[in-house]
Structures are given as structure tokens and as C-alpha cells.
Amino acid sequence: MIQIEALTKRYGTRTVVDAVSMQVERGSIAVLVGTSGSGKSTLLRMINLLVRPTSGRVTIDGEDTSGLPVHELRRRIGYVIQGNGLFPHRTVAQNIATVPRLLGWPRPRIGARVDELLGIFELEPAQYAGKYPHELSGGQQQRVGVARALAAEPAVLLMDEPFGALDPIIRAKAQDDLLEIQRKFGTTILLVTHDMDEAFKLGHHVGVMSGGRLLQFDRPARLLTHPADPFVSRLTGTADRSLRILSLIKAGEAAEPGARDGLTVPADASLRDALALLVWHGADVSAVTEADGTRIGQLTLQGILARGRAP
Asked: In terms of Cα–Cα distance, which of 89, 148, 156 is closest to 113?
């Protein structure tokens, strides 16, 4: 668990992070959003002491980070930045092995961990371990960057605009990869983005920052239905709020009794996707199925629209 208590950063008379307090539960993903200059990246960097706080403190699983040697702290926290930050003169395997080598892991353990992570990220070790970053696509480079951050099995992963340089299709795949990795390892993740759709897709909780202050830190649905102030309301999107709400609800959660033949929607699809499917086919009802084809109920156009209305 990451506990942030009245964390503040000043440069002279300018306050860039203003007494921020928040708690990121162990094994969850928290996302910080806000306009440029809102202080979200500075807040992130104070957690691993890339930026020293002026006041306040950070504890990880109850341990005050200010009392730890900086090199030790940073080896315990994975860190991913936009553009991946890979060492261009090192192979993929050498990049991923960076922190385990610094920690003195035996060579067989390092090799096994590198192969494991390459496999998880769908990069065949025999094909990719010996390649250099310039031989990879942008999406592959980003996957290697995340793999390197996870190599030493950190409990915490910090990510600063990690997918900002990727095109939309590769970005969506990278987001899905991150969700799968988080489910597999249970890593606690704090991620910074300017993309509200990305924040709502990834975050169990989302924090909205402006002028160095944390305006609201809450579940995505709560941000949409009960914004703390007008700025939060504008940033989360007044015009398409109903669609954002539908994107947070899975078809399996909203399925009603009944299972008509014909059009089907996967249980793990969002209601936003289900609505698009119904509109495209000019239908008003579809069955909801599990991955094995088992029908668990149905969705109606009227039922979906009701879910998207303000409470």
C-alpha cells in the first residue's frame, strides 16, 4: 500500500504540489490525471525520490521512504516513462536484466526471469532476447520497458505517461497487456496520464489534479456521477458522460434474464460496446455469453440506456 500524507513540493515561492494526501491500496491501479502543469508527474517522482519533497511523507507498506537509501528504494520500485527509456547499446535481455544484475541475482535466476517476462509479453525469447531496441517496433519497445521495470519483482510500479507515444491500436494493446500483468502479479501501480479514457479503463481509483492540488480521488463511476467540483466535471467529460459510464459496466454484470437466439455479446464486453453493436445491427436485444459460449442472459437497448442515465 502507498500512503501519501500532505506531500508538498515548492520551488522557491512556487508550489507545484500542494499538500496532497491519498492512499493507493495494495494490488490496485491508481491513475492521476490533470492538465499540463497540474503537478501529477512531480507527485509521482516524489514517491521514488527522483524529486525530493519539501514537506509531507510517503510510506510503502508502512515504511517511510525518506529513511531508505535512495538506490535501495529505487531498486524496489519499478519505473516506466514515455518512450520506454531503454539502453540502446544493450540487448533486450540485457535491458530486462538490469536491476536483477544490480541486486546480485544468480545468472540462472536472471535468465529464467527474462524468459518468463518475454513470454508473458508475447515476445519469443529465442527471437527477441538478442535484439537491440532499434530493431523493435514502438509497441515492442514499450513492452520491454515494462518488462524491465517488473524484472526484480517490485511490489510497486510507477508509470509516467507510459503509452503516450504509441498509436491508438498499439496503445490499446499495451493497456490490455498492463491489466493482464497486474492481474497476474498483483503489482500496486500508480500511473500518470492526460487521457481520461485511459484513466477510466485502467484505474480502480482515479485522482484529478489541478494547480498542484488533488481535487478528487475516487472510483471512476463516482467521478462521473458525483464530481467534486466544476473542474472535475469538465475534465471527466460532461457531453459524453453517459457513454463513459457505460464503458465501466460489463455486459455480464448487467445481463437480464432471457437468452434470445441471434446477436450475442461477450460477458466481458462493456455496455458501451454492446450499445454500439445493437445500433450497428439495428437490434434491440442480444444474448450475453461467457467465453465458452454459455448464455447467461440478455441485454436490451432500453436496459442499456437506463444504465447510462444519471442517478
From this structure: 148
Q: Which are the contacts of 163, defined by CB distance < 8 A and separation ≥ 6?
A: 82, 142, 171, 174, 175, 193, 198
Q: For 28-83, how does the pLDDT look when each residue is reduced to its tens digit (9 = 90+)?
A: 999 999 988 899 999 999 999 999 999 999 999 889 998 888 888 888 899 988 76
Nearest in space to 45 (alpha carbons), one of 72, 80, 90: 80
Helices 107-120 and 138-150, packing angle to 10 deg: 140
Which residue's C-alpha cell is 475534465?
A: 235
For the stretch 192-216, pLDDT in tens is 998 888 998 899 999 999 999 999 9
10 Å Cβ neighbour count for 188? Answer: 23
What CA–CA distance (Å, rounded) separates 59 from 1?
8
What is the three-class DSSP state of 129? coil
Q: Are 134 and 88 within 8 A, CB to CB? A: yes
The grid coordinates listed for 180 are 493482464
Contact 308, 279 (CB under 8 A): no
- Helices and strands in the chain, H and E counts: 15, 13
The CA distance from 83 to 94, in Å, is 18
**CA 216 from centroid of its chain's CA atoms:** 18
Length of the chain: 311
Write the DSSP assignment of 141-206 as a string of letters.
HHHHHHHHHHTT--SEEEEESTTTTS-HHHHHHHHHHHHHHHHHH--EEEEE-S-HHHHHHH-SEE
